[in-house]
Please model this.
Amino acid sequence: MIGETREKEIYEVLQEARRSIEEDGKLLSKVYNESSIFDLEVKRIFSKTWVFLAHESEIPWSGDYVLRRIVDDSFIVTRDEDGDIHVLFNMCRHRGMQLCRSDAGNSSHFRCPYHGYTYQNTGKLNGVPFQKEAYGPEGLDKDEWAMTPAPRMEIYEGMIFASLNPDVQPLEEYIGDMGWYLDFYLKKSSAGLEVVGPPQRWIMPADWKLAAENFIGDGYHTQSTHMSTIKAGIMRVKSPAYLKEGVQITAGKHGCLFMGFKPGSYFNYPQGIVDSMLENLNEDQVELLKEESIMPLNATVFPNTSFLHSAMAVEAEGELATSVPYLTIRVWQPMGPGKMEIWSWCLVEKDATEEFKKNSNRAYLSTFGASGTLEQDDAENWSGQTRVAAGEMSGQHYLNYSAGAKHVEPIPEGEWPGPGTAYPKNYVDFAQRHFWQTYFDHLLDDRNGS
Model:
Protein backbone atom coordinates (compact mmCIF):
# COMPACT_ATOMS: atom_id res chain seq x y z
CA MET A 1 0.00 0.00 0.00
CA ILE A 2 1.01 3.61 -0.50
CA GLY A 3 2.55 5.32 2.55
CA GLU A 4 1.11 8.67 3.64
CA THR A 5 3.96 10.73 2.18
CA ARG A 6 4.03 8.70 -1.01
CA GLU A 7 0.24 9.00 -1.36
CA LYS A 8 0.48 12.79 -1.12
CA GLU A 9 3.15 12.82 -3.83
CA ILE A 10 1.02 10.62 -6.08
CA TYR A 11 -1.98 12.89 -5.62
CA GLU A 12 0.10 15.92 -6.57
CA VAL A 13 1.30 14.14 -9.70
CA LEU A 14 -2.23 13.10 -10.60
CA GLN A 15 -3.61 16.58 -9.99
CA GLU A 16 -1.11 17.95 -12.49
CA ALA A 17 -1.93 15.10 -14.88
CA ARG A 18 -5.62 15.99 -14.70
CA ARG A 19 -4.90 19.66 -15.36
CA SER A 20 -2.73 18.73 -18.33
CA ILE A 21 -5.35 16.53 -20.05
CA GLU A 22 -8.14 19.04 -19.44
CA GLU A 23 -6.29 22.22 -20.40
CA ASP A 24 -3.57 21.09 -22.81
CA GLY A 25 -4.80 17.77 -24.21
CA LYS A 26 -1.66 16.03 -22.93
CA LEU A 27 -1.60 12.77 -20.93
CA LEU A 28 1.14 11.70 -18.53
CA SER A 29 2.31 8.33 -19.90
CA LYS A 30 3.17 7.01 -16.42
CA VAL A 31 -0.53 6.36 -15.72
CA TYR A 32 -0.27 3.33 -18.03
CA ASN A 33 1.98 1.38 -15.69
CA GLU A 34 2.58 2.43 -12.08
CA SER A 35 1.87 0.26 -9.04
CA SER A 36 0.85 3.09 -6.71
CA ILE A 37 -1.62 4.41 -9.28
CA PHE A 38 -3.04 0.93 -9.74
CA ASP A 39 -3.67 0.71 -5.98
CA LEU A 40 -5.69 3.90 -6.22
CA GLU A 41 -7.64 2.56 -9.20
CA VAL A 42 -8.74 -0.45 -7.19
CA LYS A 43 -9.74 1.72 -4.25
CA ARG A 44 -11.31 4.67 -6.08
CA ILE A 45 -12.69 3.15 -9.28
CA PHE A 46 -13.27 -0.58 -9.09
CA SER A 47 -14.52 -0.45 -5.51
CA LYS A 48 -16.96 2.36 -6.38
CA THR A 49 -18.42 1.85 -9.85
CA TRP A 50 -20.56 -0.76 -11.66
CA VAL A 51 -18.71 -3.64 -13.34
CA PHE A 52 -20.20 -6.08 -15.86
CA LEU A 53 -19.98 -9.72 -14.75
CA ALA A 54 -22.15 -11.91 -16.97
CA HIS A 55 -25.07 -12.09 -19.37
CA GLU A 56 -28.33 -13.73 -18.28
CA SER A 57 -28.14 -16.19 -21.17
CA GLU A 58 -24.98 -17.71 -19.65
CA ILE A 59 -27.09 -19.08 -16.79
CA PRO A 60 -30.41 -19.95 -18.48
CA TRP A 61 -31.48 -22.82 -16.18
CA SER A 62 -32.10 -23.15 -12.45
CA GLY A 63 -28.86 -24.16 -10.76
CA ASP A 64 -26.63 -22.67 -13.46
CA TYR A 65 -23.69 -20.59 -12.28
CA VAL A 66 -20.52 -18.91 -13.54
CA LEU A 67 -17.53 -17.55 -11.65
CA ARG A 68 -16.62 -13.91 -12.22
CA ARG A 69 -14.66 -11.24 -10.37
CA ILE A 70 -14.11 -7.58 -9.73
CA VAL A 71 -10.30 -7.28 -9.66
CA ASP A 72 -9.42 -9.76 -6.85
CA ASP A 73 -12.93 -10.29 -5.46
CA SER A 74 -14.42 -13.55 -6.72
CA PHE A 75 -18.19 -13.93 -7.15
CA ILE A 76 -20.51 -16.80 -8.01
CA VAL A 77 -23.27 -15.61 -10.34
CA THR A 78 -26.12 -18.08 -9.85
CA ARG A 79 -29.71 -18.71 -10.90
CA ASP A 80 -31.71 -20.31 -8.08
CA GLU A 81 -34.60 -22.78 -8.25
CA ASP A 82 -37.11 -19.93 -8.62
CA GLY A 83 -35.17 -18.41 -11.51
CA ASP A 84 -33.82 -15.49 -9.50
CA ILE A 85 -30.23 -14.34 -10.06
CA HIS A 86 -27.75 -13.87 -7.21
CA VAL A 87 -24.17 -12.55 -7.09
CA LEU A 88 -22.48 -14.18 -4.09
CA PHE A 89 -19.01 -13.53 -2.68
CA ASN A 90 -17.06 -16.73 -3.28
CA MET A 91 -15.83 -17.27 0.28
CA CYS A 92 -17.00 -19.61 3.05
CA ARG A 93 -18.13 -17.77 6.17
CA HIS A 94 -16.36 -20.29 8.42
CA ARG A 95 -12.65 -20.03 7.59
CA GLY A 96 -12.65 -18.12 4.34
CA MET A 97 -12.01 -20.95 1.89
CA GLN A 98 -12.98 -20.40 -1.74
CA LEU A 99 -16.28 -22.22 -2.08
CA CYS A 100 -16.49 -22.77 -5.81
CA ARG A 101 -13.51 -23.46 -8.04
CA SER A 102 -15.21 -24.41 -11.32
CA ASP A 103 -15.60 -21.66 -13.90
CA ALA A 104 -19.16 -22.74 -14.68
CA GLY A 105 -21.62 -25.47 -13.90
CA ASN A 106 -24.98 -26.39 -12.43
CA SER A 107 -25.56 -26.99 -8.73
CA SER A 108 -28.23 -26.32 -6.16
CA HIS A 109 -25.59 -26.12 -3.38
CA PHE A 110 -21.95 -25.19 -2.79
CA ARG A 111 -19.99 -27.21 -0.25
CA CYS A 112 -16.80 -25.90 1.32
CA PRO A 113 -13.95 -28.40 0.86
CA TYR A 114 -12.29 -27.34 4.14
CA HIS A 115 -14.86 -28.09 6.87
CA GLY A 116 -17.94 -28.97 4.88
CA TYR A 117 -20.23 -25.95 5.37
CA THR A 118 -22.91 -26.21 2.67
CA TYR A 119 -24.80 -23.31 1.13
CA GLN A 120 -27.79 -23.15 -1.18
CA ASN A 121 -27.32 -21.34 -4.47
CA THR A 122 -29.27 -18.46 -2.93
CA GLY A 123 -26.43 -18.02 -0.42
CA LYS A 124 -28.38 -19.46 2.52
CA LEU A 125 -26.34 -21.64 4.90
CA ASN A 126 -27.93 -25.06 4.69
CA GLY A 127 -25.67 -27.55 6.45
CA VAL A 128 -23.01 -27.50 9.18
CA PRO A 129 -21.25 -30.81 9.96
CA PHE A 130 -21.56 -31.91 13.62
CA GLN A 131 -23.37 -28.68 14.35
CA LYS A 132 -24.43 -29.46 17.94
CA GLU A 133 -21.07 -30.91 18.87
CA ALA A 134 -19.27 -27.86 17.53
CA TYR A 135 -21.70 -25.11 18.56
CA GLY A 136 -23.79 -26.57 21.35
CA PRO A 137 -27.45 -27.65 21.61
CA GLU A 138 -28.75 -24.46 20.05
CA GLY A 139 -26.58 -24.96 17.01
CA LEU A 140 -25.56 -22.08 14.76
CA ASP A 141 -27.61 -19.09 13.63
CA LYS A 142 -27.60 -20.00 9.94
CA ASP A 143 -29.13 -16.71 8.85
CA GLU A 144 -26.25 -14.81 10.39
CA TRP A 145 -23.68 -16.97 8.62
CA ALA A 146 -25.14 -17.03 5.11
CA MET A 147 -22.94 -16.24 2.12
CA THR A 148 -22.28 -12.56 1.55
CA PRO A 149 -23.95 -11.08 -1.54
CA ALA A 150 -22.31 -8.40 -3.64
CA PRO A 151 -23.20 -5.04 -2.06
CA ARG A 152 -25.19 -4.16 -5.19
CA MET A 153 -26.42 -6.16 -8.18
CA GLU A 154 -28.63 -4.96 -11.03
CA ILE A 155 -29.46 -6.15 -14.53
CA TYR A 156 -29.55 -3.96 -17.64
CA GLU A 157 -31.03 -5.48 -20.82
CA GLY A 158 -29.80 -8.95 -19.82
CA MET A 159 -26.38 -7.72 -18.63
CA ILE A 160 -25.61 -8.54 -14.99
CA PHE A 161 -23.61 -5.83 -13.21
CA ALA A 162 -22.34 -5.71 -9.63
CA SER A 163 -20.72 -3.07 -7.46
CA LEU A 164 -18.65 -3.25 -4.29
CA ASN A 165 -20.14 0.08 -3.29
CA PRO A 166 -23.50 -0.20 -1.45
CA ASP A 167 -24.11 3.52 -2.08
CA VAL A 168 -23.47 3.47 -5.83
CA GLN A 169 -26.17 5.20 -7.87
CA PRO A 170 -28.75 2.94 -9.57
CA LEU A 171 -27.36 1.20 -12.65
CA GLU A 172 -29.76 2.76 -15.14
CA GLU A 173 -28.93 6.19 -13.74
CA TYR A 174 -25.20 5.38 -13.88
CA ILE A 175 -25.46 4.38 -17.55
CA GLY A 176 -27.59 7.48 -18.15
CA ASP A 177 -27.59 8.94 -21.65
CA MET A 178 -25.36 6.11 -22.86
CA GLY A 179 -28.39 3.83 -22.69
CA TRP A 180 -29.77 5.50 -25.83
CA TYR A 181 -26.69 4.30 -27.71
CA LEU A 182 -26.56 0.87 -26.09
CA ASP A 183 -30.02 0.21 -27.56
CA PHE A 184 -28.37 -0.24 -30.96
CA TYR A 185 -26.37 -3.15 -29.54
CA LEU A 186 -28.84 -4.68 -27.11
CA LYS A 187 -32.32 -4.09 -28.54
CA LYS A 188 -32.12 -5.08 -32.19
CA SER A 189 -34.59 -7.88 -31.43
CA SER A 190 -37.45 -8.11 -28.95
CA ALA A 191 -36.25 -11.67 -28.27
CA GLY A 192 -33.04 -10.29 -26.79
CA LEU A 193 -29.48 -11.54 -27.08
CA GLU A 194 -27.75 -14.79 -26.21
CA VAL A 195 -24.08 -15.56 -25.67
CA VAL A 196 -22.51 -17.97 -28.16
CA GLY A 197 -20.34 -20.34 -26.14
CA PRO A 198 -18.42 -19.37 -23.01
CA PRO A 199 -16.50 -16.08 -23.03
CA GLN A 200 -12.95 -16.29 -24.29
CA ARG A 201 -10.27 -15.23 -21.80
CA TRP A 202 -6.62 -14.42 -22.18
CA ILE A 203 -4.00 -12.51 -20.23
CA MET A 204 -2.11 -9.61 -21.77
CA PRO A 205 0.85 -7.61 -20.40
CA ALA A 206 -1.06 -4.38 -21.01
CA ASP A 207 -2.89 -1.75 -19.01
CA TRP A 208 -6.70 -2.02 -18.90
CA LYS A 209 -7.15 1.70 -19.62
CA LEU A 210 -5.49 1.44 -23.02
CA ALA A 211 -8.17 -0.95 -24.23
CA ALA A 212 -11.03 0.95 -22.60
CA GLU A 213 -10.05 4.29 -24.14
CA ASN A 214 -9.32 2.71 -27.52
CA PHE A 215 -12.85 1.29 -27.69
CA ILE A 216 -14.43 4.54 -26.52
CA GLY A 217 -13.66 6.16 -29.86
CA ASP A 218 -10.23 5.66 -31.45
CA GLY A 219 -11.04 5.46 -35.14
CA TYR A 220 -7.66 7.00 -35.99
CA HIS A 221 -5.59 3.87 -35.33
CA THR A 222 -7.38 1.68 -37.88
CA GLN A 223 -5.68 3.26 -40.91
CA SER A 224 -2.30 2.11 -39.63
CA THR A 225 -2.77 -0.68 -37.08
CA HIS A 226 -5.22 -2.73 -39.15
CA MET A 227 -3.73 -2.14 -42.60
CA SER A 228 -2.70 -5.80 -42.99
CA THR A 229 -6.26 -6.98 -42.35
CA ILE A 230 -7.55 -4.63 -45.02
CA LYS A 231 -4.92 -5.72 -47.56
CA ALA A 232 -5.75 -9.37 -46.88
CA GLY A 233 -9.39 -8.74 -47.75
CA ILE A 234 -10.67 -9.72 -44.31
CA MET A 235 -12.12 -6.25 -43.89
CA ARG A 236 -14.17 -5.35 -46.97
CA VAL A 237 -13.31 -1.66 -47.17
CA LYS A 238 -11.80 0.30 -50.04
CA SER A 239 -9.54 2.55 -47.99
CA PRO A 240 -7.63 2.19 -44.71
CA ALA A 241 -9.14 5.55 -43.77
CA TYR A 242 -12.60 4.00 -43.61
CA LEU A 243 -13.24 5.45 -40.15
CA LYS A 244 -12.19 9.00 -40.94
CA GLU A 245 -15.79 10.07 -41.40
CA GLY A 246 -18.36 9.41 -38.71
CA VAL A 247 -19.54 10.76 -35.39
CA GLN A 248 -17.87 10.59 -31.96
CA ILE A 249 -20.07 10.81 -28.87
CA THR A 250 -19.57 11.65 -25.20
CA ALA A 251 -22.57 10.70 -23.07
CA GLY A 252 -22.37 10.96 -19.29
CA LYS A 253 -19.29 9.11 -18.09
CA HIS A 254 -19.16 7.14 -21.30
CA GLY A 255 -18.64 7.43 -25.05
CA CYS A 256 -18.88 5.79 -28.44
CA LEU A 257 -18.01 6.10 -32.11
CA PHE A 258 -20.49 5.86 -35.01
CA MET A 259 -19.53 4.66 -38.46
CA GLY A 260 -21.35 4.75 -41.76
CA PHE A 261 -22.59 1.88 -43.88
CA LYS A 262 -23.84 1.58 -47.45
CA PRO A 263 -27.43 2.93 -47.54
CA GLY A 264 -29.91 0.13 -47.13
CA SER A 265 -27.32 -2.47 -46.06
CA TYR A 266 -27.68 -2.10 -42.25
CA PHE A 267 -24.26 -3.61 -41.62
CA ASN A 268 -25.37 -6.67 -43.65
CA TYR A 269 -27.72 -7.87 -40.92
CA PRO A 270 -30.35 -10.36 -42.17
CA GLN A 271 -33.63 -8.74 -43.14
CA GLY A 272 -35.44 -10.30 -40.18
CA ILE A 273 -33.10 -8.60 -37.71
CA VAL A 274 -33.27 -5.32 -39.65
CA ASP A 275 -37.07 -5.40 -39.48
CA SER A 276 -37.11 -6.05 -35.72
CA MET A 277 -34.39 -3.44 -35.14
CA LEU A 278 -36.39 -0.76 -36.94
CA GLU A 279 -39.46 -1.78 -34.98
CA ASN A 280 -37.78 -1.85 -31.54
CA LEU A 281 -35.80 1.39 -31.74
CA ASN A 282 -37.41 4.79 -31.31
CA GLU A 283 -38.05 7.29 -34.07
CA ASP A 284 -34.81 9.23 -33.61
CA GLN A 285 -32.72 6.06 -33.52
CA VAL A 286 -34.38 4.79 -36.69
CA GLU A 287 -33.64 8.12 -38.37
CA LEU A 288 -29.91 7.55 -37.88
CA LEU A 289 -30.18 4.11 -39.42
CA LYS A 290 -32.47 4.94 -42.34
CA GLU A 291 -31.64 8.53 -43.18
CA GLU A 292 -28.02 8.89 -42.05
CA SER A 293 -26.92 5.27 -42.61
CA ILE A 294 -24.77 5.19 -39.49
CA MET A 295 -24.76 3.11 -36.33
CA PRO A 296 -22.38 2.71 -33.37
CA LEU A 297 -19.22 0.75 -34.04
CA ASN A 298 -17.49 0.68 -30.65
CA ALA A 299 -18.28 2.07 -27.21
CA THR A 300 -17.11 1.97 -23.60
CA VAL A 301 -19.17 2.17 -20.43
CA PHE A 302 -16.78 3.46 -17.78
CA PRO A 303 -14.67 1.98 -16.42
CA ASN A 304 -13.96 -1.24 -18.32
CA THR A 305 -16.93 -2.59 -20.29
CA SER A 306 -16.73 -2.18 -24.06
CA PHE A 307 -18.94 -3.00 -27.04
CA LEU A 308 -18.05 -3.57 -30.68
CA HIS A 309 -20.25 -3.90 -33.75
CA SER A 310 -18.45 -4.93 -36.88
CA ALA A 311 -18.79 -7.08 -39.99
CA MET A 312 -16.16 -9.35 -41.50
CA ALA A 313 -15.86 -11.54 -44.58
CA VAL A 314 -16.88 -15.15 -44.03
CA GLU A 315 -16.87 -17.86 -46.69
CA ALA A 316 -20.04 -19.95 -46.75
CA GLU A 317 -19.95 -23.44 -48.28
CA GLY A 318 -19.88 -23.17 -52.05
CA GLU A 319 -20.34 -19.39 -52.01
CA LEU A 320 -18.16 -16.31 -52.27
CA ALA A 321 -17.14 -14.64 -49.03
CA THR A 322 -19.60 -12.04 -47.76
CA SER A 323 -19.43 -9.66 -44.81
CA VAL A 324 -21.23 -10.99 -41.76
CA PRO A 325 -21.97 -8.73 -38.76
CA TYR A 326 -21.19 -9.61 -35.16
CA LEU A 327 -21.36 -8.11 -31.68
CA THR A 328 -18.79 -8.58 -28.94
CA ILE A 329 -18.82 -7.30 -25.36
CA ARG A 330 -15.49 -7.12 -23.60
CA VAL A 331 -14.32 -6.57 -20.04
CA TRP A 332 -10.78 -5.31 -19.52
CA GLN A 333 -10.14 -7.00 -16.17
CA PRO A 334 -7.24 -5.46 -14.20
CA MET A 335 -4.80 -7.97 -12.73
CA GLY A 336 -2.13 -5.57 -11.51
CA PRO A 337 -0.07 -2.66 -12.83
CA GLY A 338 0.52 -3.23 -16.53
CA LYS A 339 -1.44 -6.49 -16.69
CA MET A 340 -5.01 -7.39 -17.57
CA GLU A 341 -7.18 -10.36 -18.41
CA ILE A 342 -9.47 -9.81 -21.39
CA TRP A 343 -12.94 -11.34 -21.23
CA SER A 344 -14.66 -11.44 -24.61
CA TRP A 345 -18.25 -12.48 -25.31
CA CYS A 346 -19.88 -13.02 -28.71
CA LEU A 347 -23.62 -12.32 -28.70
CA VAL A 348 -26.34 -12.82 -31.29
CA GLU A 349 -30.09 -12.28 -31.42
CA LYS A 350 -31.95 -15.22 -29.92
CA ASP A 351 -34.39 -15.41 -32.82
CA ALA A 352 -31.71 -15.31 -35.55
CA THR A 353 -31.27 -18.35 -37.78
CA GLU A 354 -28.75 -20.99 -36.74
CA GLU A 355 -26.80 -20.30 -39.92
CA PHE A 356 -26.47 -16.62 -39.06
CA LYS A 357 -25.45 -17.41 -35.49
CA LYS A 358 -22.75 -19.74 -36.74
CA ASN A 359 -21.39 -17.32 -39.33
CA SER A 360 -21.56 -14.34 -36.96
CA ASN A 361 -19.49 -16.26 -34.43
CA ARG A 362 -16.99 -17.21 -37.14
CA ALA A 363 -16.63 -13.56 -38.15
CA TYR A 364 -16.03 -12.63 -34.50
CA LEU A 365 -13.49 -15.40 -33.87
CA SER A 366 -11.47 -14.54 -36.97
CA THR A 367 -11.11 -10.90 -35.98
CA PHE A 368 -11.67 -10.26 -32.26
CA GLY A 369 -11.40 -13.72 -30.75
CA ALA A 370 -8.28 -14.52 -28.71
CA SER A 371 -6.29 -15.26 -31.89
CA GLY A 372 -8.23 -12.92 -34.17
CA THR A 373 -6.39 -10.77 -36.68
CA LEU A 374 -7.54 -7.39 -35.37
CA GLU A 375 -7.14 -8.51 -31.75
CA GLN A 376 -3.50 -9.36 -32.40
CA ASP A 377 -2.92 -5.96 -34.02
CA ASP A 378 -4.26 -4.15 -30.96
CA ALA A 379 -2.46 -6.43 -28.50
CA GLU A 380 0.92 -5.57 -29.98
CA ASN A 381 0.27 -1.87 -29.53
CA TRP A 382 -1.16 -2.03 -26.01
CA SER A 383 1.59 -4.31 -24.68
CA GLY A 384 4.26 -2.09 -26.24
CA GLN A 385 2.76 1.06 -24.73
CA THR A 386 2.59 -0.58 -21.31
CA ARG A 387 6.15 -1.88 -21.49
CA VAL A 388 7.60 1.54 -22.28
CA ALA A 389 5.49 3.22 -19.59
CA ALA A 390 7.21 1.16 -16.87
CA GLY A 391 10.41 3.20 -17.11
CA GLU A 392 11.50 6.34 -15.28
CA MET A 393 11.20 8.60 -18.33
CA SER A 394 7.45 8.03 -18.53
CA GLY A 395 7.08 9.99 -15.28
CA GLN A 396 7.92 13.19 -17.18
CA HIS A 397 6.66 12.17 -20.62
CA TYR A 398 3.37 13.55 -22.00
CA LEU A 399 1.32 12.15 -24.87
CA ASN A 400 -0.74 13.96 -27.49
CA TYR A 401 -4.51 13.74 -26.93
CA SER A 402 -5.36 17.03 -28.63
CA ALA A 403 -6.87 15.89 -31.95
CA GLY A 404 -9.87 18.02 -32.86
CA ALA A 405 -9.51 20.41 -29.93
CA LYS A 406 -8.72 23.52 -31.99
CA HIS A 407 -10.67 23.01 -35.20
CA VAL A 408 -13.67 20.69 -34.64
CA GLU A 409 -16.89 22.00 -33.11
CA PRO A 410 -19.67 19.80 -31.74
CA ILE A 411 -22.75 19.22 -33.87
CA PRO A 412 -25.16 22.04 -33.02
CA GLU A 413 -27.95 21.30 -30.58
CA GLY A 414 -31.01 20.03 -32.38
CA GLU A 415 -29.10 18.63 -35.35
CA TRP A 416 -28.07 15.40 -33.64
CA PRO A 417 -31.04 13.30 -32.45
CA GLY A 418 -29.29 11.54 -29.58
CA PRO A 419 -28.26 12.72 -26.10
CA GLY A 420 -24.80 13.79 -25.03
CA THR A 421 -22.36 15.74 -27.19
CA ALA A 422 -21.70 14.64 -30.78
CA TYR A 423 -18.70 15.58 -32.92
CA PRO A 424 -18.82 15.28 -36.73
CA LYS A 425 -15.45 13.54 -37.14
CA ASN A 426 -13.81 10.31 -36.01
CA TYR A 427 -10.16 11.35 -36.21
CA VAL A 428 -10.57 13.32 -32.97
CA ASP A 429 -9.83 12.72 -29.27
CA PHE A 430 -12.93 14.16 -27.60
CA ALA A 431 -14.16 10.80 -26.27
CA GLN A 432 -10.68 9.76 -25.19
CA ARG A 433 -10.09 13.02 -23.32
CA HIS A 434 -13.51 12.59 -21.73
CA PHE A 435 -12.52 9.09 -20.57
CA TRP A 436 -9.36 10.39 -18.92
CA GLN A 437 -11.14 13.31 -17.31
CA THR A 438 -13.66 10.89 -15.80
CA TYR A 439 -10.78 8.66 -14.69
CA PHE A 440 -8.98 11.47 -12.87
CA ASP A 441 -12.22 12.69 -11.32
CA HIS A 442 -12.67 9.28 -9.70
CA LEU A 443 -9.09 9.13 -8.45
CA LEU A 444 -8.92 12.64 -7.08
CA ASP A 445 -12.37 13.77 -5.97
CA ASP A 446 -12.87 11.00 -3.44
CA ARG A 447 -10.02 11.39 -0.99
CA ASN A 448 -11.93 9.83 1.91
CA GLY A 449 -13.22 6.86 -0.05
CA SER A 450 -16.85 7.82 0.51
Q: What stands out?
A: The two ends are 19 Å apart (CA to CA). The mean pLDDT is 92. Residues 51-155 form a domain with the Rieske Iron-sulfur Protein fold (CATH 2.102.10.10).
